[in-house]
């Protein structure tokens, strides 16, 4: 008997988990045996970096009714939460650790219900390279040696680490945390000494919540260009508001005028306007010119992000308390350098009111995701070999509408896909569970239908035959 076709998922976080769940579920519905191999660098299958936190005060930034893992079943998370005794209603903001347990449960259930021959193999390791395999699949090569062949590969790598900060070279290796969500990266920073976070977004919020609860005297400095905090969710969310827009090509200036007019027409309340725009963002992004996209990133993106990615009311209230107590201090400016000092680090900041120096115990890079190609040796290797290319803005990878990677010549792969944050350049709005869930469902249907149509012939996944070529990368 032939082995079932194999899909390799590079990444075991939310993107990889939702892909595995929908692959197995749709394969079960079609009666197709399918083997899924999930490779996670740290063995956090199901949770990834976002949901492996152990701090119960780190809450989801969306209410429970929007966070179902199952496409087409919006009440799935709420039923699970009720079964766990969490007592959550649709407007509740669950702890992220609970949501990590939920994703693990959903994955286990999908495996239990898989079609005969279907299974999930959980592998702990780092994929360092992909090489073309005979017949059109991929050979997955692991760091330290070894690997396996897969009929198709899905890059579910999630958010990359923050971009490197050359100005902090003097602090490298000494009380500087360059990637705060690496396992163990934040151990020790709750020692009571002041903490400076570069960035004022959601990562800063998590760090501030944790270190100020751990030690009553801790002060957190947060520095960013705009000095803007994420806005809070309203306790009673208004309904989404439609924003009238012209058809055809769209200019950024016209889009902004339409949004402002919609807010005015909505009595000055922006919440419903932003929520009405959210599902249209990929379409609107596609209609903007490349120059307008760059202008958006330079001038508008931060304002969109703080209104779009909001805080749970309880978290917002905690930040308000910290600001009132002087334990969270916002600075509008940029960090220009840092050096070791007897107390920890002396950080130089070019602030709006002039240069200043801050003596802190720790510095955390909370600037958000960097470029995937810069931070991931696997993706850099694929680009160097011509098997992939970055999108024009450097936000992620260039892809077709299906999520198929484009090679250096712009041709879509038939067996190499991606979803989630790596699609930012193509879709912009692609980092939240609702978007990733829908992408995973569409991709599952594409792959499983191809398996069902082609069986185990050479054309499994409907692929073109290609000559074998290897992809190599170097250790980071």
TrEMBL record:
It comes from the Bacteria. This is Putative NAD(P)/FAD-binding protein YdhS. Pfam families: NAD_binding_9. Residues 8-159 form the FAD-dependent urate hydroxylase HpyO/Asp monooxygenase CreE-like FAD/NAD(P)-binding domain.
């Amino acid at each position: 008997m032939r082995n079932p076709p194999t899909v390799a998922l590079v990444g075991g976080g939310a993107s990889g988990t939702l892909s595995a769940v929908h692959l197995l579920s749709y394969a079960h519905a079609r009666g197709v045996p399918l083997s899924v191999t999930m490779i996670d660098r740290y063995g956090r299958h199901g949770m990834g970096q976002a949901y492996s936190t152990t701090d119960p005060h780190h809450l989801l930034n969306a209410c429970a009714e929007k966070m179902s893992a199952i496409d087409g079943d919006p009440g799935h998370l709420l039923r699970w939460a009720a079964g766990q005794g969490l007592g959550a209603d649709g407007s509740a903001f669950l702890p992220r650790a609970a949501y990590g347990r939920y994703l693990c449960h959903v994955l286990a259930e999908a495996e239990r219900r898989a079609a005969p021959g279907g299974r999930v193999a959980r592998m702990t390791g780092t994929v360092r390279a992909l090489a073309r395999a005979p017949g059109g699949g991929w050979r997955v090569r692991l760091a330290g040696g070894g690997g396996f062949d897969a009929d198709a590969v899905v890059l579910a790598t999630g958010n990359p680490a923050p971009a490197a900060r050359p100005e902090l070279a003097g602090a490298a290796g000494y009380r500087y945390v360059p990637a705060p969500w690496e396992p163990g990266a934040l151990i020790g920073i709750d020692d009571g000494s002041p903490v400076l976070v570069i960035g004022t977004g959601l990562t800063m919020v998590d760090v501030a919540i944790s270190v100020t609860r751990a030690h009553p005297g801790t002060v957190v400095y947060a520095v960013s260009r705009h000095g803007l905090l994420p806005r809070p969710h309203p306790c009673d969310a208004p309904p989404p508001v439609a924003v009238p827009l012209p058809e055809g090509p769209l200019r950024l200036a016209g889009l902004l005028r339409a949004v402002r007019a919609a807010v005015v027409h909505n009595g000055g309340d922006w919440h419903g306007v932003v929520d009405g725009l959210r599902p249209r963002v990929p379409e609107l992004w596609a209609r903007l010119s490349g120059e307008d996209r760059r202008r958006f990133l330079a001038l508008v993106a931060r304002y969109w992000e703080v209104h779009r990615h909001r805080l749970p009311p309880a978290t917002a209230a905690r930040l308000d308390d910290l600001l009132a107590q002087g334990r969270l201090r916002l600075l509008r400016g940029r960090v220009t350098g840092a050096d070791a000092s007897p107390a920890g680090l002396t950080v130089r900041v070019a602030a709006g009111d002039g240069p200043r120096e801050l003596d802190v115990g720790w510095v955390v890079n909370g600037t958000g995701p960097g470029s995937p190609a810069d931070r991931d040796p696997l993706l850099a290797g694929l680009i160097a070999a011509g098997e992939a290319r970055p999108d024009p803005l450097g936000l992620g990878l260039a892809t077709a509408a299906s999520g198929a990677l484009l090679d250096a010549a712009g041709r879509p792969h038939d067996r190499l896909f991606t979803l989630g944050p790596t699609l930012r350049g193509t879709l912009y709005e692609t980092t939240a569970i609702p978007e990733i869930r829908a992408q995973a469902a569409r991709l599952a249907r594409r792959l499983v239908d191809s398996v069902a149509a082609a069986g185990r012939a050479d054309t499994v996944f409907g692929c073109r035959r290609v000559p074998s070529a290897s992809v190599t990368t170097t250790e980071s």
